[in-house]
Specification:
22 helices, five-stranded mixed beta sheet, single chain
């Protein structure tokens, strides 16, 4: 008797046991019961492995969420979420659609925050007022704001697992999930009340559902449209890849309904069906975007803010023609305006103005575990060369590649969070290495996954400033990168603890880059850039992003100071005599 096929459950034909034959008395055993017992025996170790991977990720993210003070962007999103929920207003932060902030708000409903409805000021001032000037506990508020994002990040891990299993089977699913769960960039950004991870995760979910639509388009295409709409309702940066996903919808329909012997008419009917399905998917996505705005304000009251720039040319026409609410289109104009600004960048010790096309690939090279880079490359090669995986290349590699190229041409070289979709999509691609039939390849894959795990665990709980061993680890990241790659204002609370333990009673001079208020954490510090150089003595504490861009007075202060310690790999403590 041939062995049963159970490749979808962790084994293969060669390893499945033979079911028993007839009994001595001539009776037949319950073969189905024996098979079920075998399946259950193999299933539980797999499930426990999945749970263990997600559990360590959850511990890492919750610990990070508890220990880190607000990053630069978070107070704006948290305050906007409060305004969305309590005032039903779309006014603050129009440059980002509401969905991500509504998700943040789902946690804030348990925080019972006090919001000053009469506050007038910028969105940055609103965030500071909510956290530090309204009688709220900033740590309590931020934890509740971050928890929904942590849960969502864990759910996206299940999407990575399911997508990779669909492509390569159970072993590949575990490889993909391990890379996702140990990714320092995903852990760092998934533990924050920000929008990068949810936008990327919704996009990945849409692509996975499009892949499933190759068999049942009637079921999966509408759901792919919902996920795509959720991505567009979270961050506008996903819009350039929408045409790619609509084409994938056509491709999935073509695969699902391909006739056995098509003539020209059949091909034209198939193309028309695919186009109609893609249009339907687009309409669903547009409806989701509209729904998120209507949830905030059912009357869609909107007055164009004064800071909306007049965008001309192709970008202006795109913003005018898209079938989205006026608030969304004004947000696009604000985002386009950012692209015309001149931003400062820092890469490998070089401070520059503008942007470098190779900044994001270089930053990914620094901030991705070495074993993960190797598995990404091996997986991409497998997707392109293995016959079974080749149909998945347009789904796994093309959307990520298109978004990467577009992001490389952006104006802001501020961090790999702009391409946090890469660890998600390439984790799925890396599952392709599990299809190799060579035992040596399996051993190398296991060793590389373990290397990734060790590298990730060693950086705990300092995931934001992570860099791999080739670039010196987290303590050296500030020498090569800045801003959200290493120092996003997250360590103000840790600095307070460091000063209490190691420098009680000493005078502190602080140059801090972030949205936190030092006094709220018990830090009594003076501003060295507003005092004569001769008066600055004692402890000089400087955020590493500020040090990377130091010139004039700050550069002179640093040149005459001695580093004596660091906090969270993002803040350096100097002694100036």
């Amino acid at each position: 008797m041939s062995a049963p096929r159970i490749s979808r459950l962790g084994g293969d034909e060669a390893t499945a046991p033979l079911l028993p034959g007839p009994t001595a008395t001539g009776g037949q055993p319950d073969r189905s019961a024996a098979f079920i017992r075998y399946v259950r025996h193999r299933r539980w170790p797999y499930v426990l492995t999945v749970v263990a991977l997600l559990a360590q990720m959850a511990v890492a993210m919750v610990t990070t969420a508890v220990e880190q003070t607000p990053t630069i962007d978070e107070p704006v999103y948290v305050a906007t979420a409060e305004v969305h929920l309590k005032e039903r207003s779309l006014r603050p932060n129009p440059e980002h659609p509401p969905l991500g902030k509504l998700i943040i708000g789902s946690g804030l409903v348990f925080a019972d925050a006090r919001l000053d409805s009469g506050f007038a000021g910028s969105q940055q001032a609103l965030g500071r007022h909510l956290l530090y000037e309204s009688g709220n506990d900033p740590g309590h508020l931020m934890l509740w704001a971050r928890l929904p994002m942590i849960v969502l990040t864990l759910l996206f891990g299940l999407v990575v697992l399911a997508f990779a299993r669909d492509l390569t089977g159970p072993a590949g699913g575990l490889v993909a999930l391990a890379l996702y769960a140990f990714s320092p960039d995903v852990i760092a950004n998934g533990s924050l009340a920000t929008l990068d991870v949810p936008a990327a995760g919704f996009l990945l979910t849409s692509v996975w559902l499009l892949w499933r639509a190759r068999r049942r388009p009637g079921l999966w295409l509408p759901l792919a449209g919902v996920a795509l709409g959720a991505a567009a309702a979270t961050k506008m940066s996903v819009l350039p890849v929408v045409p790619v996903l609509l084409l994938l919808g056509v491709l999935s329909c073509r695969q699902a309904r391909r006739p056995s012997d098509p003539d020209v008419r059949a091909r034209l009917r198939l193309l028309a069906y695919g186009a109609a399905a893609a249009v339907g998917m687009a309409l669903v996505a547009v409806a989701v975007v509209w729904a998120t705005y209507l949830v905030v304000d059912p009357r869609l009251r909107w007055v164009q803010p004064e800071n909306v720039p007049d965008i001309r040319g192709t970008r202006g026409r795109v913003a005018a023609w898209l079938p989205f609410p006026e608030a969304y289109r004004d947000g696009m104009r604000i985002q386009f305006g950012f692209e015309y600004d001149i931003w400062k960048g820092f890469l490998f010790g070089r401070l520059y103005e503008g942007s470098l096309w190779y900044y994001l690939p270089a930053a990914l090279l620094v901030k991705t575990p070495l074993g993960m880079l190797a598995l990404w490359l091996g997986g991409a090669v497998a997707v392109l060369t293995v016959r079974r995986l080749r149909p998945a290349a347009p789904y796994v590699l093309v959307p990520a590649g298109v978004l990467l190229v577009i992001s490389m041409n952006g104006a802001r070289d501020l961090g790999v969070r702009y391409v946090v979709f890469m660890p998600m999509f390439l984790a799925v691609a890396a599952a392709g290495v599990a299809l190799s039939r060579r035992r040596a390849a399996h051993l190398v894959t296991a060793a590389l996954v373990c290397f990734v795990a060790v590298s990730s665990l060693r950086t705990y709980p300092y995931y934001l400033p992570y860099s791999n061993e080739a670039f010196g680890g987290p303590s050296k990241t500030h020498l090569r990168l800045h801003d959200s790659n290493v120092d996003w204002g997250q360590d103000l609370g840790r600095l307070a603890g460091h000063l209490r333990r190691h420098h009680p009673g000493e005078r502190v001079w602080l140059v801090y880059k972030g949205a936190g208020v030092p006094a709220a954490y018990g830090i009594d510090a003076s501003k060295p850039l507003q005092a004569p150089l001769g008066e600055v003595h004692g402890l000089l504490v400087v955020s590493n992003s500020s040090a990377a861009k130091a010139d004039g007075r700050l550069a002179a202060l640093l040149d005459t100071s001695t580093p004596i310690g660091e906090v969270g790999h993002s803040i350096t403590v100097y002694r100036r005599r």
